[in-house]
UniProtKB/TrEMBL annotation:
It catalyses: 4-CDP-2-C-methyl-D-erythritol + ATP = 4-CDP-2-C-methyl-D-erythritol 2-phosphate + ADP + H(+). It is an enzyme of class 2 (transferase). Catalyzes the phosphorylation of the position 2 hydroxy group of 4-diphosphocytidyl-2C-methyl-D-erythritol. The gene is ispE. One of its GO terms (biological process) is terpenoid biosynthetic process. This is 4-diphosphocytidyl-2-C-methyl-D-erythritol kinase. It comes from Moritella yayanosii.
Length: 286
């Protein structure tokens, strides 16, 4: 095993629409959602070894090593080999945590895909997605790396091509806890299921939005600002909100008007995750 360092992308995602269709007996919710990647994300530099040890630097403030979803992903993978597999992982954490951009889930998926290659485990995409699902409902779509319509709890994926628009993504100064939000008594959780072709034609919405705006005034404020300029909504369970533009110059014109204190990203939608290009590059080099 070569101990050289390789670099891997962990892109963010947006939920272009998200509907909550019901609650299962295990407490998880049935969803219909459309995932697309964007060209902003975290980065992982990984050096594999046979030390049986995993290091992740720098530590994420407030998250113990064993709670880091990257660490959990390495443990789940190590179980598939008798070898004393180890890795030194450097994480460049660019994405806000708990923002509905899927940063943790994407970090976990990138870890699975990268270490499956670097540790020469030869698990297929199906197996990696199944391991990912145990780590979080959002992990499989990042493992597969294609924009997708998701049903079930987010694991039944149909790849899809949608317009690769430009987005302005605002990070309000607030944090939404996904589990708390899912248990909010006021949450809309009975939207009727619709076939994909109808969902694509109808106006796109997010069923979390009303409740998140009510509980987090900063989110309502950010959304109100974006809505002056373009169609805008919440992503995932929040708290980030985004607006969509057909061209980069349209997005830049609004970006220029953003108040100084606002944390805001310009990003492009991607139907194919940069992680797949990283994997292809690594295959070429070995
Ligand atoms: C709702 C979404 C939409 O993308 O929100 P974001 O996390 O992206 O904001 C995701 O499906 C979230 O996925 P993920 O963040 O991986 O959630 P998990 O760790 O699996 O679950 C966190 C908690 O949310 C609740 N949960 C999650 C997914 C789901 N379909 N139904 C649920 O009820 C459960 O209480 C669970 O304990
Ligand atoms: N590598 C990681 N990156 C981000 N968050 C992590 C990580 N490992 C564990 N977490 C925990 O998971 C929570 C949700 O993270 P994140 O995936 O960023 O949220 P979201 O899915 O809403 O975008 C964080 O608040 C943090 O406590």
């Amino acid at each position: 095993m070569q101990h050289k360092i390789s670099h891997w992308s962990a892109p963010a995602k947006l939920n272009l629409f998200l509907y909550i269709n019901g609650r299962r007996s295990d407490g998880y919710h049935e969803l219909q959602t459309l995932f697309q990647f964007v060209d902003i994300g975290d980065e992982l530099a990984i050096s594999p070894n046979l030390s049986d040890r995993i290091t992740i630097t720098p530590a994420i403030p407030g998250v113990a090593l064993t709670d880091n979803i990257i660490y959990k992903a390495t443990m789940a993978l190590k179980a598939h080999s008798p070898l004393p597999l180890g890795a030194d992982i450097t994480l460049t954490k660019n994405l806000p945590m708990g923002g509905g951009l899927g940063g943790g889930s994407s970090d976990a998926a990138t870890t699975l895909v990268a270490l499956n290659h670097l540790w020469q485990l030869n698990l297929d995409e199906e197996q990696l997605a199944a391991i990912g699902l145990k780590l979080g409902a959002d992990v499989p779509v990042f493992v597969r790396g294609h924009a997708a319509f998701a049903e079930g709890i987010g694991e039944q994926l149909t790849s899809i091509e949608v317009d690769e628009n430009y987005y302005l993504i605002v990070v309000p100064d607030s944090q939404v806890n996904t589990a708390t939000l899912f248990s909010d008594p006021e949450l809309t959780r009975n939207t009727p299921k619709r076939p994909l072709n109808q969902l694509l034609q109808d106006e796109w919405q997010n069923d979390f939005e009303t409740t998140v705006k009510k509980r987090h005034p900063e989110v309502a404020k950010a959304l109100e600002w974006l809505l002056k300029y373009a169609p805008s909504r919440l992503t995932g369970s929040g708290c980030c909100v985004f607006s969509e533009f057909k061209t980069k110059s349209d997005a830049l014109a609004v970006l220029a008007k953003a108040p100084k204190h606002m944390q805001i990203y310009l990003a492009k939608g991607l139907n194919k995750s940069p992680l797949l290009y990283d994997l292809a590059r690594e295959h070429c080099m070995t």
